[in-house]
Amino acid sequence: MQILENRLITLTGPGGNGKTRLAIKAGRALLGSFEHGVWFIDLTGVLRDSGVAGAVSRVLGILEEAGTALSQTIARQLENRSILLVLDNCEQVLAGSADFSAAVLANSPHVKIVATSREPLRIRGELVSQIPPLSIDDGENLFYERGLQSGGVFSNGYSESTVIRTIVKQLDCVPLAIELAAARSPMMDPEQILAGLDRRFDLLNGGVRDASARSRSLRASVVWSYDLMSPEEKAMARRLSVLRGFTLEAATAIGGGTAPLDQLQRLVEMSIVQVDRSGPQRRYRFLETVREYLLEQLVENGEVLPARSAHLAHFIDFSEFRAEHLILGDGPILMAQIQTEFDNLEDALIFAESLSDPSALLRLLTALTGYYEIWGQHQHGMRWFDTSLARTRAPDVLVARAYWGASHVSAYGGRMDLAFPRAMRALELAREIDDPWTESRALDIIGFAQAVSDPKGARESLSRCIELGRQINDGWAETHGIKMITVVYLFSHHVAGGSETIQNLLLLADETESRYLRAWGSALKGYFARDAGDFSAARDSLDISIESASYVGDPATGGFAKAWSAALKADNGWVDEARREMQDMMQTATATGTFLAVPETMFQLGLIEVGAGNPQATIEMIGDHTEDLKSAGIPVWAAQLALANASAHIALGKLDEANALLDEAEELAASLDNPLLSGLNFFFRGQLSLAKGDLGAAEGRLHQALEIQRDAALLPGLLRTMEAISSVLIAKEKGEDAARILTFVDQARLEIQLERSSVELARRSSQSYALENLLGISNLEKMQSKAKNADLEEIIGLMSRMRGKRARPLTGWDSLTPTERRVVSLTTAGLSNPQIAERMFIARGTVKVHLSHIYEKLDVASRTQLAAKAVADGFEVVN
């Protein structure tokens, strides 16, 4: 034990934390180590420093000598004795305890002392041991022990244990408080005791009769500590009681006084304030029982308003300082700091709401906008903004900015129906009062809202947002505007524009060390790569996004990345795992803040369920969500759900309902010019016609899907469409053509690792059986052999010729697909194959294949010849 190696140990800590119990336990354990015994001296009743030696002498039986200080007499009597003195409750006679201990230790070499005090004695050779609270387990055991001793009866069930552990936590694991609570067990069950902690000073006032007065009541213990403080220390403690845990910075700003750091140190030494060193930044706090008493004293002294006002002012400054940097490199650290202060920020908001002037409330809420977005606290933030906007006065800068904050949080909460009008109001006010800061940010959200239905208008709004941000050196507006332009390209599935903007966003993420930007940019990069059939690149990018979003604490971006990653797993054949991940995400969306990604998740899962043979599950899952999304002002997601729903109805043979859903999806997405949605719509219309037996219509619709998917380089969708066309050809008894197409599709699927769903596997098996009957096994194998070395363009050319028309000429500029024209543009600009692959979110090998087709169509043999021909022929660069 430490006492055997040190002559003075002082056990410190707040009242009731078990110092006395521990000292007695240590003394008993050491009885055999001291020849002349262990002696316990209770100083509770000693009120003057001069009385300490007298209390010791009475216990030891040492009489006072005339003309000699009693402490010297005791020291001389103990000079040759091996003895341990336990001085209990030294805090109210701290100087006397220190003087006595120093005298004895200096003159009695074999004496050792254990002192208990709420603050150190501060003499030479003292080892201070801060007594920590009990563990939750020990606190629970103490509650049961004292409760049983008091005559309580317990069930020892799990639910009872949970309640008792909650009681222990709420009592800060302080032994005295736990014992006093447990003493109520004969009259109250644990649930009633827990409920009574709201008035803990009334509840916890019945200790054992032979305990000291301050140990029989929790309040008495706290009052004892309070009375030992100087007036300045009391004043600072009262002001700091408005804080729910605090930093040194907050203590300095709110505590007041002429020497706040010195006073805080004294409060720590007196065990009034506890120090928490567990986090990256040292924090301070009161035990809740101490804080409750100090708040009472704050009210009695008429100091609530100045203390709360200082608290509010500090947290406005705290939040505004961090607001501009949340999306940059230090964002996660700043977000963690804000999250740590959540309770303090809520208290500040509540106090600000009570003021007649809403200025402080508007400032604080606006500063917290980014926090509500990134941390997924959208609903919470919207409720506060609703409250603040209901109290706004004549338009000014603060009102305009609050409207922007409200629009921003509403947008990320999936309420475009609220976001757009609020952003428009913010824009109107900003232009009225000439506030470019608000104007740029309002345009950011207006562009976001327009992206779901008006891509051109969205790009114009966001371009102006970025321009204004640069003019006023507002890095947030510029950066977020660039991010939002990528959202426009997402909703319109514009790969060419999106790839370059995403690349710029990722470069910006590297420059600013922003994982927030990297998370979103990588998510989109993975999204487009998956739709292009580059599953390896998609997987890598989505993994980066998920890791970055988790680090930042951005559940919205993380939700999209996880949904697309799960869909990719289904593409690779891991259907059960994909389904489980998506279902878990939707079930926990509200709690985790990922509900903005729920429509996307529902769309992907709906298609997976149809492919797995569970179309009814898709219909039941989607339910009224399509209408909800239309009402919320997000037609693009409503269109996606309508498509998944249509697919399910086709599978169930409900063809009229499916047709109506496809019409609805087409109308909802009409303004977006989205090739992914258009291609799917034609694909499902082809399946619908095939189900009706209308082979001509089916072939026409599927070829329309094929052309869209080919031009947009949507390889997985393209392969599925080719399979569907093969079914039409088989029905028309064109087995040779179908065999060649299916052979190519089988090889392409294998190459990119696109596995078939259970429904697709059954269909493919039926196709093989039908082809064997149509062609015979020998002829089928010949057709398959012919198609083994075919490439995509050759197969699509074959399919076009089968329809009696050629979609494009075989050579010349007009023969190039949009994807090939994009490759020419980037090649002419001097980009290498890896750089082109990076820009277009495709594999390097795919770039090489595209170039070989381009060389053949344009009759050139190298990059140099290609660039020269482009210049000579006036080739129009595609951006």
From TrEMBL:
Molecular function terms, GO-annotated: DNA binding
A Gene Ontology biological process term: regulation of DNA-templated transcription
InterPro entries recorded: P-loop_NTPase, Sig_transdc_resp-reg_C-effctor, TPR-like_helical_dom_sf, Tscrpt_reg_LuxR_C, WH-like_DNA-bd_sf
A family per Pfam: GerE
Superkingdom in the source lineage: Bacteria
Segments forming domain HTH luxR-type: 809-874
Protein name: Signal transduction response regulator
Protein's organism: Candidatus Rhodobacter oscarellae
